[in-house]
Write a structure and sequence with these properties.
The chain is α/β, with parallel strands linked by helices. It contains 8 helices and 9 strands. Strand 7 and strand 8 form a beta hairpin. Helix 1 crosses helix 7 and helix 3 runs parallel beside helix 4.
């Protein structure tokens, strides 16, 4: 007799590929596996990337992104979507149009630069992120560099994080996570919908191998939402997962290594 199995929650990532395996689509799918959901992918761009940085990027045509998305969503369905590197205004607008017709929570990681400072979003695409993508986000997860790109707000302390959140929320997402890990002192993120505030604190790990943290956090939030959690619960769970992954980050190559997506089950 055939074995019946429950279908896991399905989460889709629309993002770029990281050939080094630490960030991008690869990090997203590893995170989804760690959360027990079925991960699916729409590839927006290819990068030549390793522990030292990004050596090259090639974006896919908009029709290729649209075809991947329709293929997955129309047949398999989806309970949450996460977006990452979208590279150009044309891709941002294509993805925003697709997401607007999908009745699932959307986590937008407005990727602008890599961990090494390499640009991953064309400057002319910023307005499309502001006006097309952020308005349909359930949760937006900018880091402080991306906040500055999108709003002009340069954050230096926790008060500045509030100003940054106000600026991002003005573009239309329901919730925003302002990631403050690059500020001095205890790492803190601010989750807010403009009314409720949740300050998420964690110990600082003395570990330079943090490649993929942003992709991983956004994907983990999407997993929580797909599993039926509310936004604060999903973000807290994602924060705890990423904190553990950073603590277990390991060296690869000659530069910055990745966080460890399998830290919960790693035995040696």
């Amino acid at each position: 007799m055939p074995i019946s199995a429950a279908v896991p929650a399905r989460v889709l990532t629309v993002a770029g590929s990281d050939s080094g395996g630490g960030a991008g689509i690869q990090a997203d799918l590893k995170t989804m596996s760690a959360f027990g959901v079925h991960g699916m992918s729409v590839l927006s761009a290819v990068t030549a990337q390793n522990s030292l940085g990004v050596q090259g990027t090639w974006e896919l045509p908009a029709e290729a992104v649209r075809a991947q998305y329709r293929s997955v969503v129309d047949d398999i369905g989806v309970q949450a979507v996460k977006t990452g590197m979208l590279a150009s205004a044309a891709l941002v607008e294509t993805v925003a149009e697709l997401l607007a017709g999908t009745a699932s929570p959307v986590v937008v990681d407005p990727v602008g630069v890599s961990k090494h400072g390499d640009p991953l979003l064309a400057a002319e695409a910023l307005d499309s992120v502001r006006t097309k993508l952020l308005p349909i986000a359930t949760v937006a997860t900018p880091n402080l560099d991306e906040v500055a790109q999108l709003t002009g707000v340069h954050v230096t302390d926790e008060t500045g994080m509030r100003h940054a959140a106000t600026g991002i929320l003005a573009f239309g997402p329901r919730w925003v996570v302002i990631k403050g890990g690059h500020l001095p002192g205890e790492p803190v993120d601010l989750l807010t919908d403009g009314t409720a505030e949740h300050w998420l604190r964690a110990p600082r790990n003395d570990n330079r191998h943090t490649h993929g943290t942003g992709c991983t956090l956004a994907s983990a939030i999407a997993c929580g939402l797909a599993l039926g959690q509310d936004v604060p619960t999903a973000v807290r769970g994602a924060k705890a997962y990423v904190t553990g992954a950073i603590a277990a980050g390991f060296p690869l190559g000659a530069g910055i290594g990745p966080v460890d997506h399998g830290w919960r089950t790693r035995t040696g």
